[in-house]
């Protein structure tokens, strides 16, 4: 498998979930967090899998995620599966473009996988700045959208999911396995490498204790696993011995 980190950039995030691009030297405002936005493209033998889609910013008139893929020689139509860990706007913003109120998906040939229960929960969070409500509605209406209804399951050969439920009620993790190699995407339950060693319960999680316990369990199992870090400012991935 080949891992392509698609780093959209560094952003400063405040308590009402405003994402402001970080410029080197800019003063840090108390109460804000500096983090990366980084979807991942995984090339497998028979699939080209996109794990989450970023914030949806644009560069030179092109969605940032498409520009990053183009730099790697990958066309939008090459992506066969888009798998969403959860539905916060910094993970779903790159699903498509809006033009005069119309939604145009960026990956029209790919199947889009999401937890139905996560969507129902997100849809009920009216006014919550963590979500972009129009994108939620557009996502549900996509003809190539695939609802996941179980706590665990197989998406395709070598691709499985499991509801972890720590960061959001139905947040899910993704595991990809091929030729003995294991890639584990814990999304926002292991957003940064330091989370593997700091066994803390964080207040920004729906269930911080569950997320903490999940991390302990995954690390105990993770012989030779490669972990992907969506929000780590410096380290996209790490393979444990």
Which descriptors apply to this entry?
241 residues; Metallo-beta-lactamase, Chain A; 6-stranded mixed β-sheet; 5 helices; 19 strands; 32% strand
Could you explain how this protein is built, in words?
- The chain is an alpha+beta fold and 241 residues long.
- The protein has a single domain (2-240), classed as Metallo-beta-lactamase, Chain A (4-Layer Sandwich), CATH 3.60.15.10.
- The chain contains five helices and 19 strands.
- The strands form five sheets. Strands 1-5-6-9-12-13 form a six-stranded mixed sheet. Strands 14-15-16-17-18-19 form a six-stranded mixed sheet, with no helix packed on it. The protein has a three-stranded antiparallel sheet with strand order 3-2-4, with no helix packed on it.
- Strand 7 and strand 8 form a beta hairpin.
- It is globular.
- It starts with a strand and ends with a strand.
Count helical runs: 5
What summary fits the major beta sheet? 6 strands, mixed
Mean pLDDT: 95
The helical percent reads 10-25%
How far apart the termini lie comes to 18 Å
The geometry reads as globular
Q: Can you describe this structure in just a few lines?
A:
By secondary structure, this protein is an alpha+beta fold.
Topology (SSEs and partners):
Elements: E1 2-5, E2 9-13, E3 19-21, E4 33-37, E5 40-43, E6 48-51, E7 58-59, E8 62-63, H1 64-71, E9 81-83, H2 89-92, E10 96-99, E11 102-105, E12 111-115, H3 116-123, H4 133-141, E13 145-148, E14 152-156, E15 159-163, E16 172-178, E17 181-185, H5 208-221, E18 226-228, E19 237-239
